Amino acid sequence: MPIPSRAAALVGLGLVGMLGLAARPMLGQQADSKVQRTDAGQPARATAATLAPAVIAGVDMERIINEYDRYKESSEKFKAEALQKQKELEVMLAEAKRLAEQRDQFGVGTPDYQKYSDLLADAQAKFEAQKQKVAADFTIRESNAVAEIYNDIRYVVDYMAKQKGISFVIQIGNNEKVSGENPNDVMAAVARNVVYHDPSADITDQVIATLNAFHSRRKAQQGAAPAPAPAAAPAQPPAGGGN
C-alpha cells in the first residue's frame, strides 16, 4: 500500500543516514560501537511506535448510489422533468414539420415557398437552440445533484470511519467471476484497483442503512421547519446497519 510503503521508506532512509554518520566518527574520536547502535536504533523504535496498524474497509460506491433514497428521488424527479422537456421539444419539431409541408405545396422560387422556407429555418434554429439549452441545463443540474449525493456519502463514510477507528475506506466491487458476454463488465473488472477483498471488511450495507436513515431524518426536519435554518454543521448521522 502506498502510505505504509512510503513510511517504511522514510524509516529506512533515516536508518541509512544515521548509520552513515555513525560510520564517520569525528577525527581523533574513537567510535563506540554500543553507543552508535543505540543511537541508530532509538529513532527507528520511536518511529515504529508512532505508526499504528492501518484499519482498512471497503465500500461499493455503485451500490451505495443506486440504493441511496435521495438518489432514487432525484432520478425520478429528473425523469419527470426530462419527459416534460421532451414533449415541449416535440411540439417545436412538429411545428417545423408543418412548416416544411406547407412550403412544399408551393413551387420552388415562388414568394410563398420562400416565405415558408424562412419560417422553417427560424423554427429549426429555435428548436436546435432550445435542445442545446435543455441539454446544457440538465448536464449542470445532474452534475450538481451527483456532487451533493457524493458529499452525503463521503460525510457518512467519514463519520462511520471515525466511529469505528478505520484508517482507509477504499472503493471495491463484488468478488464474483466476470463473464465475457459483456465487454464493459470485463473492462471494468480489469480496471479495478482491488481484485479481491475480505467480505468482512465490506461496510457497504452499513453505509447505505446509515445514509438512508440520515436522509429520512433530514427530510423530516426540513418538513417541520417553518423557515430555512441558519447555516450550521450538519446533524450527526444516526447509527444504522450494525456495528
Describe the overall structure:
Helix 4 (69-103) packs antiparallel against helix 5 (111-164). 67% of the residues lie in helices and 3% in strands. With 243 residues, the chain is mainly α. The longest helix is centred in the middle third of the chain and has 54 residues, at 111-164. The chain contains 7 helices and 2 strands. The chain folds into 2 domains: 2-51; 61-224, no CATH class. The chain has helices at 2-22, 33-50, 61-67, 69-103, 111-164, 183-190, 204-224, and strands at residues 56-59, 168-171. A two-stranded parallel sheet has the order 1-2. Keywords: Coiled coil, Signal. Residues 61-133 form a coiled coil. Residues 227-237 have a biased composition (Pro residues). Pfam families: OmpH (PF03938). This is OmpH family outer membrane protein.
Give the structure's gist in a few sentences:
With 243 residues, this protein is mostly helical. The chain has helices at 2-22, 33-50, 61-67, 69-103, 111-164, 183-190, 204-224; strands at residues 56-59, 168-171.
Q: Helix share of residues?
A: 55-70%
Beta strand count: 2
The helix count comes to 7
Order of helices and strands: HHEHHHEHH
Compute the separation of the termini in Å: 26 Å
Weakly predicted, low-confidence segments: 1-41, 227-235, 238-243
Tell me, briefly, the overall form.
elongated
Broad structural category: mainly alpha
From the alpha carbons, calculate the radius of gyration and give it in angstroms. 32 Å
Mean pLDDT: 78
**Main sheet summary:** 2 strands, parallel
